[in-house]
Design brief:
- The protein contains six helices and 13 strands.
- By secondary structure, it is an alpha/beta fold.
- The strands form three sheets. A seven-stranded mixed sheet has the order 2-1-3-4-13-12-11, sandwiched between helices. Strands 6-5-7-10 form a four-stranded mixed sheet, with helices on one face. A two-stranded antiparallel sheet has the order 8-9.
- The longest helix is centred in the first third of the chain and has 14 residues.
- It is globular.
- The mean pLDDT is 96.
């Protein structure tokens, strides 16, 4: 089995690569490759799209790698398990509202909006550890419970139009999105590769997921 982590010049992918390789080796789940090659993406069994920075910048960088987004979208339409991380998750939305209005993939109906915690003393960006307020009945969340801690660095989050697409939240002056998904796609606002035990469990579950 091949898990492809899409490389489109959006941040240092080393920590993601190491975490996915560690869990793939632990469960005997094939190889993990970081790639910008559309042909490698097409051959992959699982696809991961990280993202660091501003929505519009990531969307532009992804579009500038010839054929990369097309290969990712082909995989998603074919039913392959897909994970978006941080801005990689946000780009799954209809549109992002960071520094203007920017089109997303349209896979999860909704907007990516600025965090507005009710407690004005809370700093933006939301940075550091936070505990999950809830977890869904979903294979990727097996053995992960409300109260488990995950790591965030962000100022925006995806607000889905359909509540069924909102899988998990954390509290930061009100509920903010921790995970979204439906069918064969999953997205996390938190960074599983930086979330220690809980994040590694999440990655393991994703690698074992067969939607």
């Amino acid at each position: 089995m091949i898990t492809a982590i899409a490389d489109y010049n959006s941040g240092n992918l080393r920590s993601a690569e190491k975490s996915f390789q560690r869990m793939a080796a632990e469960i005997g789940s094939g190889t993990v490759v970081v790639t910008s090659d559309p042909d490698v993406i097409r051959k992959a069994d699982h696809i991961v799209l990280p993202g660091v920075g501003a929505f519009a910048d990531c969307r532009r960088e992804l579009g500038e790698v010839d054929g990369l987004f097309g290969a990712i979208e082909e995989g998603v339409k074919a039913g392959k398990p897909f994970m978006g991380i941080c801005v990689g998750m946000q780009m799954m939305a209809t549109r992002g509202l960071e520094h203007g209005e920017h089109a997303g993939f349209g896979w999860i109906a909704g907007d990516v909006v600025h965090l507005q915690p009710s407690d004005k003393s809370l700093k933006i960006p939301h940075m550091g550890w936070n505990s999950l307020s809830n977890t869904p009945d979903h294979p990727v969340f097996d053995d992960i419970s409300a109260g488990d801690h995950v790591y965030f660095v962000h100022s925006y989050h995806l607000v889905p139009e359909n509540s069924r697409d909102l899988l998990a939240t954390v509290d930061y002056g009100g509920p903010i999105t921790a995970a979204v998904g439906h069918d064969n796609i999953i997205g996390t606002q938190f960074h599983p590769e930086k979330s220690q035990k809980t994040g590694l469990r999440f990655i393991k579950n994703f690698l074992e997921w067969r939607p």
